[in-house]
Amino acid sequence: MRIMNIIIWVIFPAVLIIPSFTTAAGSSESFDEQRQQMVARQLRARNINDPAVLSAMSVVPRHLFVPLKIRDRAYDDTPLPIGYGQTISQPYMVALMSQLLGVQPDDRVMEVGTGSGYQAAILAEMGVKVFTIEIVRQLGLRAKDLLNKLEYDNVQVKIGDGYLGSPDNAPFDGIIVTCAPKDIPEPLKNQLAEGGRMVIPVGQSGFQQLFLLTKKGGRIIQRKIIDVRFVPMVDEKGNTY
In the chain, how many domains are there? Predict the structure, then answer.
């Protein structure tokens, strides 16, 4: 995921069998405990109440999606670096965007910005078919390998330009974007199914707003959710959109 280091404070989900990984950073048992505390303190306490989202966040091993040297911080209330100038999003942000998406089992979802693969794993655990796109080849390949090892067979990873989406697999019941374009890409709007939802940060570098878009009668209806700060959406040459 491609969110920069920001913590959002807001007042206001078939269980995967995971291999037992033990590292110098901690035992699988301690990670399990940290994960349950994360769900209780960071998610439930901030109005994350979708049962499918909470279930997925409680079983997906977030610590496997972060570098070994910072694995002991995997369940902290903050984004973490994953290399190549990218980060894995704050748990709350992953949960919030997943909840806003409002998907159902067997829905088809496109993710723009695979990053570590954690968001794709959450959506896959919720029972949807995930088509995820990553422009940084090394990240995309690494995420694909991990998702395969964890047996998320309902995830397809593509290396490419997310601005263009995946027209061969459209339309999508949901689209989730984890990098911020200056304006909402028309290709993504066109690939959203009737009644579908898109969750996307939009704006200039350093200040964006998270929007929820819904397609009704062929029209896009958008609603601002919160102010956020994401890395910009870029093309294969590094130019921002």
Answer: 1
Q: What was the pLDDT predicted at 26?
A: 54
Cα torsion 33, 35, 38, 40: sign:
negative
Asked if the structure places residue 17 within a domain, the reply is: no
- Catalytic residue of the set 20, 89, 98, 166: 89
pLDDT of residue 232: 86
Q: Please report, as a single letter, which amino acid is at residue 132.
A: T
Give domain status of residue 57, yes or no.
yes
- pLDDT at site 235: 84
pTM to 2 decimal places = 0.87
Task: Tell me, yes or no, if 30 is annotated catalytic.
Answer: no
Which token pair is 16? 């995967």
pLDDT at residue number 185: 96
Please report, for the domain that includes residue 203, its CATH number: 3.40.50.150
Task: Write out the residue range of the structural domain in which residue 205 sits.
Answer: 28-228
Does residue 89 form part of some domain?
yes
Q: How far is it, in rounded angstroms, from Cα 113 to Cα 124?
A: 15
> If we measure between CA atoms, which residue out of 201, 203, 209, 205 comes closest to residue 113?
201
Is 189 domain-assigned? yes
| Rounded mean pLDDT, 125-136 | 97
Whether 23 has a pLDDT exceeding 70, the answer reads: no
